Each structure stands twice: as structure tokens, then as C-alpha cells.
Amino acid sequence: MQQRPLHTSRRTLLTATATAAAAAALGTIPSPAQAADAQPADSRDRELRRIIGRMSLEEKVGQLFVSRVYGETATNPAQADIDLNLAQLGVRDAAELIAKYHVGGIIYFGWAHNVREPHQIADLSNGIQKVALQQATPVPMLISTDQEHGIVCRVGKPATLMPGAMALGASGSRADARRAARIAGRELAALGIRQNYAPVADVNVNPGNIVIGVRSFGADPAAVARMVTAQVDGYEGAGIAATAKHFPGHGDTTDDSHYALPYIHHTREEFERLDLPPFEAAVRAGIDSIMTAHIVVPALDPNEDPATLSRPILTGVLREQLGYDGVVVTDSLGMAGVRTKYGDDRVPVLALKAGVDQLLNPPSLEVAWNAVFNAVRGGELTEERLDESILRVLRLKARLGLFRDPYTTHRDVDRTVGISEHLRAAEQIADDTTTLLVNTGGLLPLSARTSPNVLVLGADPASPSGTTGPPTTVFGKALTELGFTATALSTGTAPTAAKIEEAVAAAAGKDVVAVLTYNVSATSSQRTLVGRLAATGVPVVTIAVNRPYDVARLPEAKAVLAAYSWTDTELRAAARVIAGKAEPQGRLPVPVQRADDPTTTLYPIGYGLSY
């Protein structure tokens, strides 16, 4: 049977589903926590504890889990998604997931086919909420995603895509950071997504950090703290639960916790000076949730457990030292960093014992759910311990107004997502981010009056959701729209000798060559490409579309810019700077060391040229 689109009015949905279900299950409380925002904390907590008191053990265990689920709809996904759900989760769809495991949250991914287009996302959210409120104990769902912006973005166009964290750090504008989060939060809320795993609070002090990098606001703890606070204010002011991540700080590692267990060898003093300030600021700002890191910090936990499973870190530092009593959510439990030391049946139990409240995306929900259930039955965990975490989660749901109204509508989507006001704001914010690092002989800006013929070359990394096509094509189109004659040729992140020869030949007769560079290493053939192009005599402009450290390895370039991402928003901003339509206002939020002497700073924090 075809599912009816869930774009009926909010009033109809609430009347038909939430109010009736809640009243039936909760007796004299027709709408649990209905006035939670206005209630004193004690009164609110009494109502929430009454809800917890009506839960079975199975329901309590479920409330602690946030799971993936495949499909564009809650009850009628495509057969391929049903097959994936059955293989990985043992259920057919989101409705069966909720009924079987009583999960408290669902996370959206592009690869799980949850985020095809705005109306579909809203309908999926509404369908999930409808199912959740039809359960024996009706509790609204907390729907989440990773919408950091920049290179990590789950919801793509036509949603508004903002510059990423390091780009915002380059602008130095707390107002821009707050405005970006406020707009992003409003659009997520219109889609029914009410918890965002952002902002990143890691201080990126290691140029070789491949997992954080430009996802961080920068290398100055105080500056990162200011930007984190601004984004917390922006997201939560838009009705979204912000999530500072990855505690206790993932900024100084060269290992990726998706695939390994990184060690952070900071002393306790270094931790408190470098890593802690942004999280401390987030707590002071009233952050709704904090995500753990799958990293080992021996100075904080001599047992060398991953922070996600470490009681000294999560209870000792986060709960007791910082006084944080909000929701603690794990990073994905499917990542290798948390699975290295213990089995999948121990990880969720140890996380709860450490102080976690939400268990995110375990590789096998059945194994993880049964592990927690059996730990309570066997006495390793108590129901009282579960109740503590459930109360924190329900407090968050109440603060977000989900007990009053968990639904959205197509009208909310149409008047919020990707509207012209938001798109203009994204362009304005992006114009403050592009950083000009080299401009030999005043090559830039280029004048469109002479119709310069520009060859656009370089890296075309896998496109994040904010990019409508290969970056070289997007950048070439942006220059064309600004009055240039631009030709695009992708040479990739590791150009072959043949591709380099093709690029050199294509440069003949061009006025300028623009090369998009991507994480240039000492052995990268991108260095050979730029050197060969410079030898032709055609001026070379390079644009670092990820980490800004590329400038240290490209001395032949006549001009170098840092764009910090390869999304449309940041590529167009860089094009406007090259064309002189925008001033290069960005300043480095991280230092760049010499390529041949990492102990010597080539460009310090705060460096940036102007016209």
C-alpha cells in the first residue's frame, strides 16, 4: 500500500496522533511536558520521571540508542533499502525499528537514502514521529544528522550551504558564525531534524590531522572557543540541539579514529591549555549535547581507554570538573577507534558506565541493545543508571518542544529551506573567509574588462553535499559568470605524468592558470604540476580547497589563496576575490610552517593579504 505523503496540517497531525496517544498512555497528563519551557525544572522533571516510570526495561534501553535506518520513508522504503535494513538491523523500515528496539533517536545519512530532497526529508521526519507516538509509551523521536557545513554536510542543495568551520575561523567574525548557525538551524528544524552534531570544538594544532583539519575553527584555543560559543547560540536559538565535538579534543593527531585508535600525548597542563577551552566555553554557553571522541589521552586516563569508554574523562573531567549535566552522545560506535580494545557487546555497556547518555549508530543494534539489556538484568548496570541518562535525553526533547509539537509541514519547508534571504547571507558570509597568502607583483585581482583567458585545473575530490559538480567545473563556471573566459580540466589529486603533459599543453596561450590544490604533500605530483605550469611563463594562481598548508609546498605560484573547502559557496567566494568583486578579508586561523623546517613558521595565525 502506498504511504500517503505526510504534508497535512500540523494541527491535524497533532490532534490525530500525538494528543490521543499521549493521553491514552499517560492518563491524566494529556500532553507530557507540554509547558516544559515555561515550567520550573523540578516540575518539569517530575512529569518526565512519570513518563520514565511507565517505561518497560525494553523501552528504557531503547531510549538510549540513536540508530541509522535506510530509506526515504518511515513505512514504505524501496526494496533495496528494505534489504539493507533486514541485513543490518533485522527490520524492514523505520517503523519496525522503532517498534522492535524503542530507539530514542534516528540519525540521517545521504548513503542511507534519508535526505533526497526537502519535502521528502520532512515527510520522513513526520512519519518517524507518528510511529514513535503510536508506541505503548509515546515519546517523540530526536532526529539528528552531521551538518557541520564545509566538507561535512549531509543535507545538500537546495538547502543553504554555509562555509565550514575553518573558513569561518578565517573570517574571525563571531556574528557571521552565529548567523550561519542560526540559518542552518532554522532549515534543519523545518526538515524535522532537531539535533545537529556541530560545532566542532577541536583545536587543530597538528597540520597532519587528516580527520579534523578544516572541520576545526583553527589552532588558537581562545579563538575556537569564541566561535564555538557563537555557533551554540546560533543553533540553539533556532530550536536545534547543538553538539560540541569531539571531547576531550581530537585536534592533535595524525590518525583517523574511523580506522584506528589515535593517541593524544598532551600533558594534563597542555590539555587544559589547548584542548579544554572550547568545551569549557560550550558548557558555559549552555550546550545541549557533547559528543565523545574515540581517542586515548593517557594523561587523563592512565588505563588508556578510549575517551568514549573512559569514566575518568567523561565523569571525572566532563561531569565533575566542568559541571556538565547535559546529554553526552558517543561518536559512531561503528568506528574502529572505539572497537579496537573491546568487543561490540562490551562497548555500549562501558560507555554507559563511563557517563554516556546516547549510544550512536552501533554496527549491530541487536548486539548492542541486548548487551545493555543483559547488563541490567545481570546487575552490571542498574535501572537507576539508565533513568539518569533517559531523564537527560527527555529534558532535551522537552526543551526543544518535541512533546508539544514534533512535526513539520511542507509550508515550513517552503518558507525556510534555501530561501533567497538565506542564500544571500551565505554568499555574504563566504566573502569574509577567503584568505590571500601570496600575490607576487600584484597579480590579483584580475580585471574582467580585458576578458582574460583562464585555464582552471586541479583536484576534483569527491564532492560534499554543497557542490553541484566537479570543483574545477564549478570554479570555471563561477569565473565565466564574472566575465572571464574559463576552461576547466580536471587533473585530480594525484595527476599522472600524462595528465601533467596535457595540462601544460592546455596552458599555451592562456593569460592565467588557476589550480585547485588539495592537501599537497612532500611527494605529491600536484607540486610537479604547478612547477611545470610555472615554467611555461603563464602566471599560476593556486587555490587550496582543503587545508591551507599547501602554500608552503608551492613556491612557484604567483598568487595563492586558501578557500578551506570545495563547496560551491566557498569556490564562488574565491572566484569573486580573484575577480576583485570581493576583498580578500580572511586571515589564517592556523599557522603554516616551512615545508623544509616544520619548526619555523612561514605564515603565522592572523596572516592575510589585502588588495
TrEMBL record:
Residues 435-611 form the Glycoside hydrolase family 3 C-terminal domain. Residues 57-396 form the Glycoside hydrolase family 3 N-terminal domain. It catalyses: Hydrolysis of terminal non-reducing N-acetyl-D-hexosamine residues in N-acetyl-beta-D-hexosaminides. Its EC number is 3.2.1.52. SUPFAM superfamilies: (Trans)glycosidases, Beta-D-glucan exohydrolase, C-terminal domain. Residues 1-35 form the signal peptide. InterPro entries: GH, Glyco_hydro_3_AS, Glyco_hydro_3_C, Glyco_hydro_3_C_sf, Glyco_hydro_3_N, Glyco_hydro_3_N_sf, NagZ_Beta-hexosaminidase, TAT_signal. One of its GO terms (molecular function) is hydrolase activity. It comes from the Bacteria. Keywords: Glycosidase, Hydrolase, Signal. Belongs to the glycosyl hydrolase 3 family. This is beta-N-acetylhexosaminidase. It comes from Streptomyces polyasparticus.
